[in-house]
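JOB MANIFEST
job_type = single_chain_structure
chain_count = 1
residues = 97
[input]
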Amino acid sequence: MSEKLKIKLSIANRVYPLTIDASQEEGLRKAAKNIEAMIKQFEQSYSVRDKQDVLAMCALQFASQVEQKTIDKENVNEHVEEKLNALNSLLNSYLIS
């Protein structure tokens, strides 16, 4: 059974207490750090002061990155499948003749 940790993460000037598996700590801390960096970037670039708007923009940015990676992975998988099918056909043609 995983060891549970109680941690506090600060995002957009709010502290969020969490009880997590020890294995999740590094990822959550990195995610919080990335969110804070993106908040700062949006506030500087777009002069946005409303934290809710900034957090919505961050959520959209992260969600679009995840979706794009999924699309890219599907495209790579299709390409690999095409290459494997071509290789399989080539091998079959040599085995049959």
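[summary]
The two ends are 57 Å apart (CA to CA).
The chain has a mean pLDDT of 93.
exit_status = 0
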